[in-house]
Amino acid sequence: MIIACPACSTRYVVPDSAIGVEGRTVRCAKCRHSWFQHGPELPPRPEAEELVPDVAPPVATQTPVAPPEPETSEPPSSVEVPPAVEPVTEPVVEEPAPAPEPPAVPRGIARRGAEADAFDSAPSSFGHEPPFRQRRNPVKLWTAAAVSFALLVALLIGLASYFGLPDWLPVSRPTFGPSRPDLALSFPAERQDRRTLPNGTEYFGASGTVTNVGKDVRDVPPILIVLRDERDRVVYTWDVTPPRDSLKPGESVTINEAVTDVPKSAKFAEIGWKPD
Q1: How many Cα atoms occupy the beta-carbon half-sphere of 259 within 13 Å?
Q2: For residue 215, what is the domain's CATH number?
Q3: How confident is the model over 127-153, as pLDDT tens digits?
Q4: Is the pTM here over 0.70, yes or no?
């Protein structure tokens, strides 16, 4: 069939099967105009032959018939097909443009495994929403920190009052325990002996008494002897257990103690109750 562009009147020769019976949208190859081309017209259906009575047909006389003229393969003179124009054999279907493929990652910066997942999930600085975080309230943070510190200090004070301070803390502690009621401790300096034995061993001895001056029975706690150097630093200590655990009113007990291998820097001694 022959179709013509309604915009530029360019005519094309296309097969009937390319347009179809129902027609389709085509586009001009010259001016790029699109239009809907209807399909070729179908020949009318032959009508049903009428029934005739069964009568012998009349005999027809034969007349000579001239031989048909030979057909030529030239197209009709009214059809002009431009030699440089190609017929549109398929309809132009407006389809959405395909999505562009993602750019290839150059070699040397490829990421794999968890590193790639972390990189892909990280917020991009070029996104439509900046990766801002909600600002925290500093007052609430300082309040929570102060409450936590107060609770920690209260806990430490309670533990120290119940168990006492640990030995590793660099704090000053009393060398001797508090005085005991009704118990008199007497270790005079003239009864303390500090000398070097003939074999070169350093010797220290002390003698004293503990007396109950009260009216009730009192328990006798352990005694602590401390040796100090010229700078008043503690160089040696040892505990003394009294020979009696308790004393009645007016009773006393004598204590004689001696120790060897004391430091040579020890110059004088202090004697008191052992701290609890």
Answers
A1: 15
A2: 2.60.40.10
A3: 555 555 566 788 888 999 999 999 999
A4: no
